[in-house]
Amino acid sequence: MATVTAPALRATLPGVLKHRAVRKLLLLALVAAVLAPLAHARWHSGTWPAALTVDLTDPLTHVSDWIIDNRDSHPLFLYFFGHISNGVVLSVRAVYLFLLAAGWAGVTALAAFVAWRTAGVRLALGTAAAFLTCGLLGMWVPTMQTLALMVVAVLASVAVGAVLGLAAGLSDRMDRALRPVLDTMQVLPAFAYLLPVVLVFGIGVPAAVLATVVYAAPPMARLTSLGLRGADKEVLEAVESLGATARQRLLTARIPLARRELLLGLNQTIMMALSMAVIASVIGGGGLGDRVYQALASVDVGAALAAGIPIVLLAVVLDRVTAAAGRGTEPAHGRPTTYALLAAAVAVAVAVRLAGRLDWPDAWTVAVAEPVNRVVDWMTDHLYSGVPVIGGTADWAGRFTTWVLDPVRDGLQGLPWWSVLLLVAALAWLIGTWRTALTAVLAMAAIGVLGVWEPSMDTLSQVLAAVAVTLVLGFATGVAAARDDRVERLLRPVLDVFQTMPQFVYLIPVVALFGVGRAPAVAAAVVYALPAVVRITTQGLRQVDPAALESARSLGATGGQQLRQVQLPLARPALLLALNQGVVLVLAVVIIGGLVGGGALGYDAVFGLAQGDLATGLVAGAAIVCLGLMLDRVTQPADRRAKKGA
Amino acid sequence: MRLRTTTAAAAAGLLLLTGCGAADMTEQASPFANAQGARTVTLSVQSWVGAQANVAVARYLLEHELGYRVDTVQVDEVPAWDALSQGRVDALLEDWGHPDQEQRYVVDKKTIARGGDLGVTGHIGWYVPTYFAKAHPDVTDWKNLNKYASQFRTPESGGKGQLMDGSPSYVTNDKALVENLNLDYQVVFAGSEAAQITQIRRFAQEKKPFLTYWYSPQWLFEKVPMTEVKLPAYEDGCDADPEKVACGYPRTPLQKYLNADFARTGGKAAAFLKKFRWTTEDQNMVSLLIADRKLTPEEAAKRWVDSHESTWRTWLS
């Protein structure tokens, strides 16, 4: 088929892009023509051949037993992991005791002071209000536990990330070695690696902190390296000509010049760590995440929300403060004012301490759980079924499952395994380079070798369906927001909340609306991925060169024509980035969807955690990683790599 | 130069801090325990509400009668054993029977001590809603289940009837049972108990038929009356081979377990937790207050404690 149409295309469309795409496809078709019959003859078509799988159940069970039996006696644990674990416990405890000793007033005053120093009066007031709200919701102690855990996890992530970033920024060889690792970590759903961490460190705070560090350190490393490499060459030359040593150059020029990137890295690290705080509750992280998780066990959305709001508030405050620090817009104020205000903050802390009001007073709490539950119940009762004309949400979910999810799943599982590999290769190569295509194909093959081809195809079908829905909704909303400022202003707080709200909070309403199964998993994934897609789309459309738009307008193009023929083509890189982000986020939640009947790999990961079954959990985790890698590479535009390296 | 001295000093400090010796992870408690001089007990809460009820009452009494501070951590069943053995939690108040873990931690490693009966007997089974069982009385025998398969069909179960299972942490042989009893059913895993309860209540509101894995004691029976489907009777050892199971589930007297060190040195708290023993009705009352009336666990525990003083007085003596 491809061979027949290719010459015709080449004749009518002599554009370089078409040309290259066709050549790539031709080459692939050639490879397929040789290899596919071979594969078909040697094994069989259909699902992944059993002869090509490796069963890891026995060795993994063996490893798991060995770890449990030797955890309290083997030197590796006593002298290495034991000290790490001990260090984490001690530091978290130190921070926690400090926060408790400062009392609620002291913590609030200190936080407001820091916010004022870096970002000005408005943010200081906002910060104080946020902390007081945490208290009002009756969540003071859990908030402090989460904060203590966060402080330690973020410091550790920043240290690890900065060291890795320094290495990658200064040495090209380290950069080449680290980049694929960091790229992989970026797409790793957190659920995938909780199990090994738990096995070594046991349930509890050390495991939670370490899992958070693994999750939150990569952005710091990436941005540190980026900042160091992006330093102005002329400044560096000038410093060198002054006779500075390598270390002086690093400390006085390159690091200060990379300040923006370093602070952006800190910002991202904090955000990732906070989003992990809730997932870490599954392995005993305690704090706010644990409250969310416990509330869900009794199907209490209101209580989950009461614990979720402080997380959102912490996220918003930390995001704004670190972002302001990154912009370097420090408000001008003299030293005396600074000291005076610091003294005032300390005075507040001491005064409340002396007054014996260290703990948040129980009487000052507002119960939000009940009204929220009533609203959620009302909504789900009235939307679930029997809505005239359009039918209830349950009917939609049923139809979506029968008409979209089932055919896509059956189609993917029914395709011959080698044709799936071929499809992946073709897509990845068309959008990216031969390197990305190769990685994607290898990742896909690894899934087959691990022996989880069928569940992976099931998960993949959910991801594809969710991504399609997300893109349709996200692009539509993004276009609307880009065209009208009012829409964007209205959307911004909503997007902020949905992006930081722990995914666990909306798992239950989603079940109440769509029932148990794959449909609610897809719905939750759409809700989670939508904000990022909307945001990137809006930004991309807005950054389109105004001159291009102006000239289109002067040629008499209508609004729709401008959008289709100027804005969308020019914003193509942003749209591809939105697709890439959307895919990665959707995968993360489809996995968590194992908790609401999504089945497939997500269920296996949850099962592994719940039963302490390393063989099931680790294999599912590895398959999830491979799936993430494949999806990321397939949607990775060719120029992303070049830009990142700059 | 200054940098180097600082680094050296920091390294020396770290070595001093860790004491250079062995650091046994099984001896490390939660960093949030014993803050501000309070004596703390850390209890494991499993994800189901019955377990929350046990913990709520134990916590209320520990805090108000014995002056402890109580931390709770939500842990799944099997990892809870591991956490208990490491001292991350001090006590586990409701265990549904894990012979492998018991052999490993109680008998071999001796890091966990038995804490006695909880007083509640647990039973797992298959259930249909009572409104459906009344209309079709023969559905309560497994032999007739295939006749009704088409009525239990959902989009998730494909062409077969749906048997809904819950959290992956629960003990279940359902996949093998469906196979070995030749039932025309598909096991659909809800993935968590919360999701399963939400779905059951939805079905009940619509008066739809459904077949679900469920267990008693469970507060949901008071809201959605359900009737058990008789499976082939349980006999000792009939579930030995997980692939070939063709019988129902046993009745299990639920057990308490304590961390071995805590059991020895835990003082009044350990003694109290060993004596803690109540009935199915008691547990259901508290569960229902928490899960259905949406009281906080503390308020729910207070109501029970206020009305059952004679019961809990004996635990304190």
Any chance you could write out the topology, listing elements then pairs?
The complex is a heterodimer of chains A (646) and B (317).
Chain A: H1 2-12, H2 16-42, H3 57-70, H4 75-119, H5 121-136, H6 140-170, H7 172-186, H8 194-201, H9 205-229, H10 233-241, H11 246-257, H12 259-279, H13 287-297, H14 301-327, H15 335-354, H16 369-384, H17 393-414, H18 417-431, H19 434-449, H20 453-483, H21 485-500, H22 507-514, H23 518-542, H24 546-554, H25 559-570, H26 572-592, H27 600-611, H28 614-634, H29 638-645
Chain B: H1 2-18, E1 40-45, H2 49-64, E2 69-74, H3 77-86, E3 91-95, H4 99-108, E4 112-129, H5 130-135, E5 161-165, H6 174-180, E6 185-189, H7 193-206, E7 211-216, H8 220-223, E8 226-229, E9 251-259, H9 260-265, H10 267-275, H11 280-291, H12 297-307, H13 309-316
Parallel strand pairs in B: 1-2, 1-3, 5-6, 5-7
Antiparallel strand pairs in B: 3-9, 4-7, 4-8, 4-9
Would you write up a description of this structure?
The complex is a heterodimer of chains A (646) and B (317). With 646 residues, chain A is mostly helical. Helices cover 81% and strands 0% of the residues of chain A. Chain A has two domains: 62-366, MetI-like fold (Orthogonal Bundle); 392-645, MetI-like fold (Orthogonal Bundle). Chain A has 29 helices and no strands. In chain A, helix 7 (172-186) packs across helix 9 (205-229). In chain A, 50% of the residues are buried. Chain B folds into two domains: 38-121 and 253-316, D-Maltodextrin-Binding Protein, domain 2; 122-252, Glycine betaine-binding periplasmic protein, domain 2 (D-Maltodextrin-Binding Protein, domain 2), CATH 3.40.190.100. In chain B, helix 11 (280-291) packs antiparallel against helix 12. Chain B is globular, with a radius of gyration of 23 Å.
CATH superfamily of the largest domain in chain A: MetI-like
Low-confidence stretches of chain A: 1-14, 640-646
| Binned strand content of chain B | 15-25%
CATH topology of the largest domain in chain A: MetI-like fold
**How many domains of chain B, as an integer?**
2
- Main beta-sheet annotation of chain B: 9 strands, mixed
Q: How large, in whole angstroms, is the Cα Rg of chain B?
A: 23 Å
Mean pLDDT of chain B: 83
Q: How do the SSEs of chain B run, as a string of H and E? A: HEHEHEHEHEHEHEHEEHHHHH
Structurally, the number of domains of chain A stands at 2
How far do the termini of chain B sit from each other? 65 Å
Helix content of chain A: over 70%
**Average pLDDT of chain A, to the nearest integer?**
80
**Classification by helices and strands of chain A:** mainly alpha
Quaternary form: heterodimer
Q: How many β-strand runs of chain B?
A: 9
SSE arrangement of chain A, N to C: HHHHHHHHHHHHHHHHHHHHHHHHHHHHH
Number of strands of chain A: 0
| Tally of helical segments of chain B | 13
CATH superfamily of the largest domain in chain B, please? Answer: Periplasmic binding protein-like II
Overall, the morphology of chain B is: globular
Membrane topology (chain A): Multi-pass membrane protein
Protein name (chain A): Glycine/betaine ABC transporter permease
Subcellular location (chain A): Cell membrane; Membrane
GO cellular component, one term (chain A): ATP-binding cassette (ABC) transporter complex
